[in-house]
Amino acid sequence: MGKIVSISNQKGGVGKTTTAINLASNLVDLGKKVLLLDIDPQGNSGSGLGLEVQSLSKTTYEVMIGELSAREAIQKTFINNLDIIPSNINLSGLEVDFLGIEKKEFKLKDALASIKESYDYILIDCPPSLGVLTINALCASQSVMITLQTEYFALEGLSQLMRIISLVQSQWNPSLALEGVLLTMYDKRTNLANQVAEDVRNYFKEKVYETVIPRNIKLSEAPSFGKPINYYDPDGVGAKSYKSLAEEIVGRA
């Protein structure tokens, strides 16, 4: 049975999608079969793997409203053993579609039930919000990975995210665990980044990954070429960091 991991933080621009794409690709390099599921209406996980997401008709949205099964929405990527269920702007209307719907928190969990045994990992790229999409992701997951930018406002709002995780644990998914906290956009030359990293490690202890993701221009460029970093700049520091993260996650498991 595949492990389902949500990659979450309600703040935007903290490396969720970058992590989802590059972790997925590096897990494949370690011999794992991976499904990347995009529940962000921006659709960046799909475009970051070379898909024209706005023209697609088989997306997370159709799965969530019951028009398609998850298996019917799966698309192959150019990387063997890395599949994706992409999203696009249509998903932004889901909050309205779900008004008055019973058990709406479990729509994604129910949809994934038939395919989770087909993968070693299902990674869910969450939107920068704590609405019905993120709730669905957390209800469907065994664990949640938090990406945390090592800058001044990194910890702002983190308590709200932890409250949402606690709410999901108490009401819908008691087995939901904290997979880990990933420090992103790290610049070891600055006192601020080092202080944030120290604060996070003091609070989350061993749940913080040893691997940190550096601030790196190649990581920013890679999505515009539709490639994960290990295909775009395989010898660079960004590729080495995500390879290390994948190895750490598999090692912890």
Secondary-structure map:
Layout: E1 3-8, H1 16-29, E2 34-38, H2 44-47, H3 60-64, H4 70-73, E3 75-76, E4 82-85, H5 94-97, H6 107-112, E5 121-125, H7 132-140, E6 143-149, H8 158-171, E7 177-186, H9 191-204, E8 208-214, H10 217-221, H11 229-232, H12 237-252
Parallel strand pairs: 1-5, 1-6, 2-4, 2-5, 6-7, 7-8
Antiparallel strand pairs: 3-4
Helix pairs in contact: 1-12
Question: What would you say this structure looks like, in words?
Answer:
- The longest helix is centred in the last third of the chain and has 16 residues, at 237-252.
- With 253 residues, this protein is an alpha/beta fold.
- The protein is built from 12 helices and 8 strands.
- Helices cover 39% and strands 18% of the residues.
- The chain has an 8-stranded mixed beta sheet, sandwiched between helices.
- The protein has helices spanning 16-29, 44-47, 60-64, 70-73, 94-97, 107-112, 132-140, 158-171, 191-204, 217-221, 229-232, 237-252, and strands at residues 3-8, 34-38, 75-76, 82-85, 121-125, 143-149, 177-186, 208-214.
- The mean pLDDT is 93.
- Helix 1 (16-29) crosses helix 12 (237-252).
- Helix 9 (191-204) links the parallel strand 7 and strand 8.
